[in-house]
Each structure stands twice: as structure tokens, then as C-alpha cells.
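Dear colleague,

Following up on Tuesday's group meeting, I ran the structure prediction for the two-component complex that the binding team flagged. I've pasted the input sequences exactly as they went in, so you can double-check that nothing got truncated or mislabelled along the way. The C-alpha cells for the whole assembly follow below. Feel free to forward this to whoever is handling the docking comparison.

Inputs:
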Amino acid sequence: MIRLTVNGQPREVLADPETPLLYVLRNDLGLTGTKFGCGLGQCGACTVLVGGQAVRSCVLPVQAAAGQAVTTIEGIGSPERPHPLQATFIAEQAAQCGYCTPGIVMAAKAFLDQTPRPTEAQVKQALGGVLCRCGTHDRVIRAVMRAALTTGGR
Amino acid sequence: MKVHRMTRRTFLKTGGVVVVAMSVGSVRPGRIAAQTTATADRFLGKTVATDAVDGFLAIHSDGTVTLFSGKVDLGTGARAALRQMAAEELDVPLDRIAMIEGDTALTPDQGPTAGSYGVARGGMQIRRAAATARQALLDRAAQRLGRPVSDLGVIDGVVRPMGGGNGVSYADLVGDQRLNLQVNEKVPLKNPAKFRLIGKPAQRNDVPGKVTGRHGFVHDFSVPGMLHGRAIRPPAVGATLLSVDETSIAAVPGVRVVQIGSFLGVCAEREWDAVRAARQLKATWSPGKGLPEHARLYADLRASALVRDETLATRGDVAAAFAAGGRSLSATYEWPSQSHASMGPSCAVADVRPDRATIWTGSQATHRFRMTFARILGLPQNQVRLIYLDGSGCYGMNGHEDAAADAALMSRAVGRPVRVQWSREDEHGWDPKGPPHLLDIRAAVNDQGEVVAWLSEAWLPAPTPNLPNVPLLAPEAAGIAQPMGISTGLIHQNVDPPYQFPNMRAVIHWIRDTPLRTSNLRAPGKVANCFAVESFTDELATLVGADPVEFRLRYLKDPRGIEVIRRAAARFGWAPRPRARAVDSTASILTGRGFAYVHYKHNETYAAVAAEVEVERRSGRIRVTRLACAQDCGLIVNPDCVRGQVEGCLLQAISRTLFEAVTYDRSHVTSVDWATYPVLAFSDVPAMEIDLIDRPVEPPIGVGEAAGTPVPGAITSAVYDATGVRLRSVPFRPERVQAALKG
């Protein structure tokens, strides 16, 4: 039995300790917002926060997250009550297919938590590890800058 | 662990049903499943006829409307635009329109969602159905109210006398009953001057779910009793399966191996177990048929056996014009095989029973593939239902259908619903590829500097006549019959230039095959052909000492084409100058600008692009720093979605031009992840200025593909302007640019 704190709730899962956190979140806890993109830590679609740090849940064994606070895309806001950063993504309509979007939002959140007043160049740099194939980059950058300017992304 | 191994013969004889002794119900049904089933299945039994209004629309007693669309939203915003079009013609509020997409049991077959036809064709069918319904409902209301139709108007789904008085709502007139109306193909559509919704940037209703992780993708869909499956592809293209060592996965609990001919898969209750088992399962394969040497790709294309030559377009007498003398110029352009490279590897869920099958898929062509799946599974077409669910952006036919075939064969074998998601290596390695292009272009210029002759020749793989679908991997490996051949998506279009040169000829040398399985990839062929045609146009402008924008305008008659060129140049701040400047031999970063234009397919959207680039001399790295684009796509239904598509077209085209090429060794594809198949990153994004030309009285003519096609030509011309070096082989990766700069 592995004990996790996910989006503020204590959770217990019965899983092979080497199982990547991603599969536990999606299949055992029903948190399907976090996406499988590559399983190699290259694309960032699976990005969640563990102890406040952005991590690639596709390559993080669930046991490595045991006892730590895990935050997923569902944990920061909902369609009815979006997080300020999610609200600016909606305002900028910063999604096309939307598959990479949760990972991008989480990577941006981890960045803004550390750097609440970034320059645009810093945002581009910070999102260097997440990929989008539809070409929403420009809107994403605008959404992150808009969140930073209005609320510091919090 | 129990191993099921079947020959094709026993698979067919038993119907592929295998009795298994494992508990059902350990998989939680996802909320996605609940939503989908509840909203859609109550409509089962409705007509899906494309000539029936009931095929497209249902008006409910609560005043809401359900729109049934065979065209789907692949992430483009079509879901917003198609609802706007229906709401506009019906005169109901946008938020009262729900939409069901791409379900073969519920939606009309409007053809695949491809070729930028979602709104252009699908949306217009929906408008005609909605306008037919509105007209009939006005007639019914006139009878009910005892007033002439000419006195009545519709506001928010209520028919009212325009002079005041009691009205009657659509809900009261229809109340969940069928309309029983034939779509009137000639029904008058709403006057653009009266549009309330078309032309407005209505927000997409899927975006809040997408940015909060609540949106239901096919990847998130589950049904009770579902297993997780993974197919194991051979180490070499065309290899056959010789043996499987099941003891190699003895340590992974509860795995079932499915073997049908050379199709090999594993299923497990837990997804990670399926992933592990697929990685660990030891199998021996034949060496395969092998692949040709990658380095010889273009030489092989040129030397390929021809199926036939086709004269795509001809004007005047090209041979005589070349023979007349003057200056001539020729060049060869190469475009590599490219991958759809979807962010989310392809995924599907299949529930195959002895007498019927349901398949949930991100396919852009559910109706078209129903035939294929019926054939693969040996079921009548009316017992096979494909249901579209959003996938990761596909930009053409990626692996969605293959994953569905993997899931279907495994579901049939194990007698349970099976979900298959491909690995990254599967997606990059095995998606059907955009085919490589090879083009030669030659032109002659007279003493006055006028282009008097143009000859384009292209070597392209010939599509198989009457083959609607790309053959799928799983049935091919399993030895199950399906139509085999090549499908690519009209890749010959735009080989001929849009410019009115007096003598012009464009010839396609149709070749038999290319090394890798092909399909349509965004702006199929057009992006490669436009790269060649527009790059060569720039070379001609340089030859005659003309400004590239002014040079194009000399040879263009179409006023809409002329306008996009002028507007893109204006947005860019293009100052005319006759030729590339002298290159500063001391600068470490060289800057330049380039221009290109397309009239997409010669009969659809117009787009022009001006690009500014920086070339780092030492590394050979190209950065696109600024793009200006003007586009005329006829009627703009949703300007923000159109803008989003243009942004996506431009950025994906930069990615394809600078970075993307499929590589392979003698047995398999070697560009199998984001390191070996790099794509555009956030730091590569230029400033973009986009000028959308709206023509409300013209039909909509498509926005998903056109704007990207001029980008490669604009970039290579900008690199020439910066460096004096012509890059004619895509992609322009630093090592290639560096080599070209060293000359």
C-alpha cells in the first residue's frame, strides 16, 4: 500500500512501487487530466507538481512520490472555478487539441510560483521542456504573461 | 498467465472469441463513459441520411437542439463554428446547441474531416439543413398562429409576429418529434447582413475542460471490464513472427498474449502491466523485407519505376519557348518524409462481441473506416459502430485507426473491451507518413526579363485508384484481408505555379511506392510543392533583378490573390528592393526576409507570408524572428478560431521546414521520439502578425491547411536574402545550413 497526498486528499493505492505515478493518477485515482505523451520525460504532457516542483509523472515511480504532496491539473481549478492561470488560458483560448495543455499549465504554474513577474523571454525559456504540436505557443505565452501581470499567476 | 495463440483460420472459425477466467469489474468506469453513453444513446435509431434534416438536427421539448455532425472537431474549433452556423440559420442561442460528432450510428456520413472541408463543406450542409428546418417551422407556426409567414420572425427559437403578439416556440412546434423533412439544397441561406453569430469570435466550449483537465479524450475513456492492451510491432518492417517466449513475462501478473498470424499483443488489467509486458515479451521475428538506404531517398525517387506520367496543367508551348533561347534557370527541391508526430500517442477502445462491435476512436474518418472494420471483423457494416472521441491533434491520418484495429483484434481475441494506447516509439515509428517529394523546376526568361516558360516535374507515389483507406497494420500482420495500397491526399496539387506565365507545363511522374506506408499529412503535398514553386519564383525574381513581391504581382491576375500579397507585404512593412543585398562577411548573425504566396489547390483559400530570419553563421542555426500572413478564406465563421488555425499552420510549417524529417536504417524507422524527431519549441516562436480578410458574401473555403504552405518558401528565400545561399532540401537543420554556408 502506498500513501500519497493528492490535491490535498490523503490517498492509498495498491500498486507495484515501480509503477510510474502517471498510471496511478489516471487509472487508480481517476485523475485523467494528466496525459501520457512519451514515457521518456521529453514532452511534458504528464507534468504534475510533487512537493511544489514540476516533475514528469511518466518516469517517476509512484514510491518516489510516497508521503509527498502531489498536485495535478484537477487540483488547481475546475471549469467552474478555474485557477487564475487557467482563467487566462481560457481568456486567450490557449488550446487547440488540448492534449498537451494540462502539462503546459502545470509547468507554467511551477514556474510562476518561483518567478511571479517574469519577462516574456523567461516564460519561453521556462516552457522549453514542454511541447505543443498544434501551434498554440503564442497564446500560451500571452496567457502566462497575462496571469503574471494580473495576479502573479497565483 | 494464459496464452492464446491462434492462426488466422481458427480466429475466423471461432469468431476470435476466447473464454477467459478472470474477474471483471476491477476497472472503474470513467466519467467520460457515463457522459457519452447517456447523451448519445437515447438517439439510437434516428436517421443518418445526409438528405434528411433529421439526419443533422433534433429539436427538443426543452428548447435545446442537438446537432449531429459527421465532421468532427480535431482541435480546430470546428465545434464552435459548426454550432454557430446551425444556430445562425435556426435563430436559436448558441448555448442551446449540443453537438454529437462522428458517431456512425447517429451522424450523417459527411466524409472524413480532412482537406479543410469541415466548415467549407460540412458546415454548409448543416446550414442548409438548419435553414430548411427554420423554413418549415415558420410554415407550421403560420398555421398555428393563423398569420402569413411574411408577418413572422424568429427570435431565440420562438416564432413571433414581427408586429407584436403571441408567438410559438420551436419546442412547442416540434417537441422531440422528428421533422421528416428533406434537406432543400436550394434553400435560401440567411443574408450575411443579418448575421448575429457568424463572424463573431464565440469562445470554444471545450477550452475550459481542456485547461482544467476535465475534457474527455479517447485516451481517458473507459468501459466496465476493459483491459489495457499493447501491440508489439516487429523490429523490422515486414518481419513475420516466428516464435514467442511467454516465460519472458512470467513476472508480470495477469497478462494475456494475443497472437494472430504475425500480429502480437498483450492485455492486462493494469495499464502498467500491459506496458511492461509489451516491453519485456521476447519474440523472434524474420529479418523482414528491409528498407532502402535512407541516404539514397531522392536518387531512388528519381530512378523509380513509373506507374504513369500525368500532365497536371499545360498552357502555350513550353518546348518552343525553351528552344527560343534566352536565359534559363533550373533547380531541384527535396521534401522529406514527415510524421504526424501527435503529442498523445494514438489510442482507441474496442468492444468486439460475436455479433457486433463498438469502437471509440479519434479517427478523422469514422464513417469511412466502418467499412474497413466490418471487413476485418467479418461483421455486417450495420453491426459495427465507430464513435469519435477527441484524440490528440492528428493533422491527417496518424495512428488512431491503427490503434483501433489493434484494440479490435485483441478485444475479439479475449472477449473483453480493450483499450490500446501506442507508445511514443510506436507513434513516431509506425504512423503512416507524409510521403517525400522530389521536384525539378526549369524556366526561361527573355531579353526583357519576362518569364516565358515554366516546367515543373514532380516524382510522387501514385495513390491506389478507388482505395478510400490506408491499410492498417494489425490486419496486415494478422493476415486478414483488407484493401492494400497507397493513399496520400491529392499530393499533386499546386505543382503548377499560380502565376500566368505564357508557356507552362506541370508533369507528375507517378511512381509505384515509397519506403514507408503513406497517408495524408496536413496540407498534403501542397506544402512541399509550394516550397518548390515559391522558392523557384524567388530565384527567378533574383535572376531578373526584381523585388519578389512586385515580381509576383506582374504575373497574377486574380484580385483576391493580389490583395493577400499586398496585405501581407503591408503588414510586414515590406520595402521594395530589387535584389538580395551583398552579404556582410563579418557579421556573426545574418538577417534576411522572404516572401511566398499560395492559392491553395488553385481554387480555395489564398494566403501570403512574409518571413524575417536570423542565421547564426557559426552554428548554422536559423531562427524565424517574424512572420506576417494575410489570408482570404471567404466567409469567416469564427475569427478567433480562424486566427488560431492560421497560427497553428504557420508554426507547424516552421517546424516542418526547420526540423522535421523521418529517418530509417535498413530495417526500421529511427526517428522515434522527440530527440530524434525534433519539433518547434517555445523558444522558436516568432512574432506573428496575421491579417484575416473576411468576405461574408463568399462561401467559406477552408482554414486548416493553406496558411502554412507558403512558409517554407518564405523561409528559404529569407535565408538566401541573409546569406546568399539557397537551401533546397528540407529540413534546414543547423548541420545542413552550416555545410551550405561553407559552400
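The longest strand of chain A covers residues 2-6.

Cheers,
M.
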